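Re-running Histidinol-phosphatase to confirm reproducibility after the cluster update. Everything else is unchanged from the original entry.
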Amino acid sequence: MAFTMHSHSGQFCPGHAKDQLEDIIKHAISLGFTTMGLTEHMPRTGLDDLYPEELDNPEQSLAELGPRHEAYLVEAQRLQAAYASEIHLLIGFEGEWLRPSYGPLIKSLASHPCIDYFMGSLHHVNAIPIDFDSAYYQKAVESAGGTEERLYEKYYDEQFEMLEALKPRVVGHFDLCRLLSAEPGRDVREWKGVWERIVRNLQFVAEYGGWLECNSSALRKGLVEPYPCRAIAEEWLSRGGKFTLSDDSHGIAQVATNYKRALEYLESLGVSTLMTLERIPPTGVAHENKATLVTKEVPVSTVKRCFE
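Result of re-run:
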């Protein structure tokens, strides 16, 4: 029983991902996936919030984001029904916390009847992308005070703002800030202010019952460990925290990429069970009520057998 709680398609994330959503789902089924969370990026609302890849025609790029999200919801519901006998499709989105003013929009998007959950994610510091390329990462460093230590502190402070405002069920790539770091494998416990913020955030998520994803995309991007790194994962587990599993795929080629390594990593941490969701379709008038969500525990060993 393989699954992912975090995925994207080129159909609804053009320029950033590849392939049609239906083709990605078919490929996941062929790999033995029984549950798949669809989490296309949410629309952003300002020209200043566009990614570099969207700046050739910024006004048009911005105007397309809202309608594209609505088209995604329609197609996701169609696919959810069409493949119900083969795979359990959850419909969600990935949040974009650029600043606190995005909180109400995220809540509004999450209230749509077909939305089962959303990823609570940060891709920015001071509204500057930190995972796009090294040039933007350095701009973010400078904006945070000129050192990576200050950037990490700012990242976790903004993450805490997002956590307090939204309490997402799944926290996306908890330590994304290390992706383009000059030393991504550093022991963050050596930075007192950073580590205090990490512990604060982990404790908050544990208290409201959220999950961290073990996100294997860090491995395909050249990092030695998935998100989150071992020091953070151990601290999370010491607080009774639960993990779910994600490939954060951006196309067919990345579905389940490095899952075997990610699962071995989880086993080395002593993790034996992963969390996912099961949706019970709503009763009453169609498209007016949300599904009921039930948490499911999946043995790591069961997932691992799909990739041996």
